[in-house]
Amino acid sequence: MTDSVPYVTVKPEFFGDAFAAIVEARRAGLATGFRPIFEHPRRRLAASLYEQLAGQMTYDAFIYRMNALAAGNVAVNGQPQAAAERSLFGPHLGMAFAHACVVADLTVFRSFYERHLAEELSGYVPTRWAVCAQPDARVPEPAVAPVPKGDYAALWVEGVEPALVALGERLLSDIRIPIRLVCAGPGAADILASAQIILSLSDDPGTAVALAAFGRPLCAATPAAAEYLADVGSFEVWNPLQAIDAILRALAGPPPTLRKDARDRLALPELPRPPVFVGTVPLVTIVMTVYDRLGHLRQNLQRLQNQTYPNIEIIVVSNDGPRADDVCAAFPNVRYIHRTHNTGVAGEPRNDGIAAARGTYVTALDDDDLFLDDHVASMVAACRGGLRAVYSNFLIQVVDPLPAGDVLLGYDIETPTAITAHELMVMNRLGYMTIFAERSVYEELGAYDNINVYGASEVELWLRMASHFPIGKVERPTTLYTIRKNWQGSLTATDHAKFAGGFEKMYARYPADDRPLTTEHRKAYLVSLRATTAPPAREPRYFVRPPSA
């Protein structure tokens, strides 16, 4: 699936695998790029159509049919062509593409043409992207010694599916020039060097760049080739008139040359690095609540020592569970608070930690959830422009709780969008561990209000904040929230229906009488909470291994 670390290079059918691989790499502290390989659906449709009909059609019928395909006028299995093409790239692939882009440090397209194709197919434009076409390493280097010139066209077909090769040969049959198929291997360099013209059926512009080194007229089956090469013929393989015209023009033209503005796009860009802080930097307080999972606590405290941000204090607050003094004493930047009354929820213990915090910024983390190593640095960097609080997208890791320990099943992602006070009037859409705020915010507005013991205290706090100032968003997720497949050990599993009472109290505190749609959504949410005693088992969207039978 990957050609070389740190980039993950995949076709659409493996975008979900790419997402899981990128998350795994980021958990290991590695910078990771995403290289999606987009193929125009019409190219695949042309190959399928040729396989079905090539042996049944005369040349003129073939040209007529392909021209109809190029114009979008072919019915496929009773479907309009546009619908058939959309079905080749379903919405689940667009979602997996967007998710992989959000998690990766950088998304790299082979061309601007591919980037626009990705937007057209998925409806998503990544924030962090670049364009690069590496010269195709499968193309041999030209020999130093000159070779005799031939009278044939060299058709480069390495890595091209057989149906497209046959389609290309059929397109060329009316040009009246002999064709020699060329793949990587012995003798390929001589065939390419002596050809009257080189034709490439690959849709990778990097293949055209490598073939241009032979100094022969060149025509490539991708418009993206012209982004890197001057005087290159380019066409779409499903468009016969365009293809033939491009080939005839290339035959009469000079060999292609590399564009000056493309030279810096032939090597993979260096991946962005986390923000670096030097000198005196603000102290950040992480408030971690714990009950009885001392093994999780020890592991998480150890992991927090890897944060790239240099000035952190951790306050561990035990909610009247087994004492964790010895665990915390092993880490010099950890302070421990032991509560003698168990409230059953995290709000009050977090308040104790916030009250004891000395940091300029405060954030929270439970013992079984995770901060990636660059989390604190990323959040502080986001606040440097004057924001008092920020939140972020967040990852979910779904685990199967087995007697021998939790087994990781896979991942999901939450991407809460456009969070304002209005968006928080119905339910919580934020991950608690992604909220990163100045300590002064809690001093001015208060911390968690014990409005109830079931669910609403978090969203009430975020709503209170959003009612006073904007909460900025960090797109790239740097946290992992743990969900056990059967919700074992959480209030969600045992008291799901009781959450409704808490939200009713919050709704009373923040009335929406002038917002009829919000009122209706609130009613529907309360009905959904009361409808079940526990949510259904949670499965990951992206598995790190096949699910058990």
Provide the helix percentage.
25-40%
Determine Rg (CA atoms, Å). Answer: 29 Å
The termini sit apart by 25 Å
Instruction: Indicate the proportion of strand residues.
Output: 15-25%
Protein described:
It is a single chain. The chain has 549 residues and is of the alpha/beta class. 35% of the residues lie in helices and 18% in strands. The chain contains 19 helices and 23 strands. The strands form five sheets. Strands 14-13-12-15-20-17-21 form a seven-stranded mixed beta sheet, with helices on both faces. Helix 7 links the parallel strand 5 and strand 6. Helix 1 (15-27) packs parallel to helix 5 (91-103). It is elongated.
How do you describe this structure in short?
The chain is an alpha/beta fold and 549 residues long. The strands form 5 sheets. Strands 14-13-12-15-20-17-21 form a 7-stranded mixed β-sheet, with helices on both faces. A 5-stranded parallel β-sheet has the order 6-5-7-8-10, sandwiched between helices. It has a 5-stranded mixed β-sheet with strand order 16-22-18-19-23. α1 (15-27) runs parallel beside α5 (91-103) and α18 packs antiparallel against α19.
